[in-house]
């Protein structure tokens, strides 16, 4: 089975050219590009630096002695000078005025009064004319109804978005199956729009919008005539217009146009409740609360209503404010007394009772007798700011969301712990989302507590906390404060900082896999990270770094101001971070984990990505920007010489010539059956006792190996080459079963087999042996190394290098000739045959390779390319071989270049 390489999806690409572009006219030899003349032969010129071959994703590349790179394969039939493409930022040089966060997408209004969105887009909810997800902000289309409009409010909700302009005109986009677009069209299961549409303004003409509620099944507005108008899903009466809007079977009909909510008598509405359940409520002109819709979510008697009915029976006094959650509602009277009603199972009513309740007095506790300023109602938890500025919470608290140092529910208000980070702080706003609470204080800082999975607390850890914790500000946030606590939904939160830019934290992708944070990656953010708002600058490119892991691609550009732009390949640069004067030396990328690490010019390692066990830091884990691995423990005072990454783990060879690993327990090599979140020494009490490590390499089949100073090989994980048949991971290093006296100088770790080159020029291989991949004259697997055969003219020759791929393997002998073995149906073996071979066979030298000597080669999938001493490149096998055709070849062909 061949390994699949994921496509890296990008949007709105703009080219940033490093070298000059060219058109495919006359194709010439690559050596003309490299050397300038036919006679300038590096073999006769010891000062000429030889070029090198590499792979980047599905392409082959030639890096010249002067650092220029030419690539072919993938989407190119011939060698092209490499160019770099960056996704442009629509928010570059813009500041943010408003933000709205939904479950899987978010939208902002920038200082140009236009709307920009990111996240899930399959229903058109990003409004940019596409039905595609975007990991970075995209501009909402302004070529139609939004042309010339000034947007003042935006409301993101599930699969829809709506916005209001300066003239109180409303526009919506996204899923319209149930009338959510409000444009007066026909109800249609396939109705959706990826660009804004004007809602039907028939009933709203001449009115201004005082309030917009867009969280529940229906969208509702409070207009300047103090009436409410709703459209969309009419779930058991959520539109509030009465029983007239039903079909012949008595089922309520959804509405594609706003309809007026029918308040009883001559009552008007002061304020709509911010509903996100199946019911709506409003504070009416008689200072009572009226609700309609699905009673099972909030209405006290659990009865459905298709028109508003009074809800605040039992409230003593005049209601001045209304607060709503998913299952409960609360109100505060003019006497500052609080009442709650609805679901009581977790104690959210706050009256020491767990039954469903009509409006019931919140039980005063301590200073609460002084009264309330405000409520925030979550799905099962309620928090309040008291008149004395203390914070109280009640209801569900099993993940610490009551903030009182406990992890249990409370049926009555309990004081939030204000002895720590909240000491002497005054809270002005509280948000409750799912099972976490965040608060904004007058010091312009944000504090969170409760469930911390995927970084939702924002303190740099993946832990829940039952006391308030200060948001951890790193990177571009250092030295800045927040303007307010702006938007939060379920498991991600965003806020506008004092630089008027948006920073988000929490889970990086929705349950359906859509990126949520707008950073260009799906990695969770354990600390607030700036939403993508950059472009490649005009500064010179200082550094181009290519991934050195498993051929999955991965490229980073570093410009002269230290900004770094990374992507899956050179045509997909996404801005990630700024390093200032720090420089990347080597980059490593493991696609299966969506994780990347680099070694910098201080020989230290930083990592970023989605899989937390590969981050090497127990404090700051998943991250869309690099975080240093933990150097405070086993790596203290050590620098890094080599880094490898594999599936769910990483290892380093340190300056003390020892290896340290972290990640999933099967691959850590420390003899312990538990994950390691920080670098941990591998077990050196056994076969490695007293030895130093010279080389470290990862095997794609799930194992890691070292070559010690005795030139013997030791492995752990899976496929360790010692004959183990258990199928279980080997937790401590074991010696590979090589013949006595064999000393290893080089290695090549292919996806399915591992190859070791000894000092006497023999190759030993183990792993998958189908199609003759091990080269030992058989076509069967082997758990221990077998020697690669040397038939015919090879019998007395030494091998100098070896390169393994998914299907075949090639090697160079001491005469600089190439031999291949394994799968041959695509011409992989280069010997003018489509037959497999379980022993090495010489590639054809009767054509372009006549008289050529090879100094390096590299194999990928069903193709191999070789670099000769006179700096020509030749390829054979399947696909695009760089000779200006997309047809494979059974024999080597010369890679061509267009000057």
From TrEMBL:
Pfam families, A to Z: RCC1, RCC1_2
Stored SUPFAM superfamilies: RCC1/BLIP-II (SSF50985)
Superkingdom as given in the UniProt entry: Bacteria
Cleaved signal peptide residues: none
Record-linked Gene3D superfamilies: Regulator of chromosome condensation 1/beta-lactamase-inhibitor protein II
Protein's UniProt name: Uncharacterized protein
Organism classification: Bacteria, Pseudomonadati, Bdellovibrionota, Bacteriovoracia, Bacteriovoracales
